Amino acid sequence: MKTIGHAVVTRSYGAADVQTYEPIELGKPGPGEVLLRQTAIGVNFLDIYHRRGEAKPASGLPFINGFEGVGVIEAVGEGIDDAKLRVGARMGYTLAIGGYATHRLVPVSRLIPLPDGLSDVQAAAVLLKGTTAEYLVRRVYPVQKGDIVLVHAAAGGVGLLVTQWAKHLGAVVIGTVSSEAKAKLAREIGKCDEVFLTSDQTVSWDKQVRDRFGETPVAVVYDGVAGSTLKKSLALLRIRGMAVVLGSAGGPAEPIDVHALKARSLIVTSPSLPHFTADQTSLHDSTSALFDVILSGAVNIPEVCTFSLAHAAEAHTEIEARRTTGSVVLTA
């Protein structure tokens, strides 16, 4: 059995236009795999790092980008006897490269049964970002009631989930954003108590935090920007505070003096989602917690920006230009 579909293929590292939409041919699923006909594929900054060559797939070039998606099982490989994994079942997955395609093979270990309350586009928008938010606020630094939490890029796909979840856990949430439009999102959707503009030329965001909350008030900072932001964030942390570096949208973090951290016993960590969802049990524990807060209304999925799969390059361009808010999804 062969399946004919289309995929966005990256044949060289570089700008968004190195990605081309091409026909592909797939064989039948092997043992421990299913063939998924995809309906929605999540786009993440992780994809951009891989397209640029800043992170490289183990298979090398060429490759099909994308690490999460949603679809319907069309065929099941040998040795799979789980009744949930039947032809026609709706499934999501995360951290399985090869997502930018109409059809793909997915290891059973990465599959996630989806609740009826989530549409395909919503699920594709939230699986990777939502499990990221889960491990950040529940396991990397378990947010406690009354903690002051600082979230950079608070109007981004991960940021809007982290801020809502931290608020649900009882934290006082501070967000930073780059524009007034994003500030509105961070307040209204992200439920931030305070939002400060990184683009403010009159008063810096870190001074505004001090003026409002004191000299070193922050329990944890979730920093997806890095660049010059990390040093300013460290200066705001309380004794035994933690800086969690989860991305570098603003460029590589400026070097820090690790010995200076001792003055307040600060912790700096840069965790990775695969280490927190490495097996099916930990993955399903994470998605179960995620679905609980979404279906209860504690965390709302922000409005999703969609592009057709054939226009993946345009989606990357918009994300890199920081013209998107919330999540971006490709529809197949």
TrEMBL record:
SUPFAM superfamilies: GroES-like, NAD(P)-binding Rossmann-fold domains. Residues 14-330 form the Enoyl reductase (ER) domain. Its EC number is 1.6.5.5. The keyword NADP applies. CDD domains: QOR2. Keywords: NADP, Oxidoreductase. GO terms for molecular function: mRNA 3'-UTR AU-rich region binding; NADPH binding; quinone reductase (NADPH) activity; zinc ion binding. The keyword NADP applies. PROSITE patterns: QOR_ZETA_CRYSTAL. One of its GO terms (cellular component) is cytosol. This is Quinone oxidoreductase. InterPro entries: ADH-like_C, ADH-like_N, ER, GroES-like_sf, NAD(P)-bd_dom_sf, QOR-like, Quin_OxRdtase/zeta-crystal_CS.
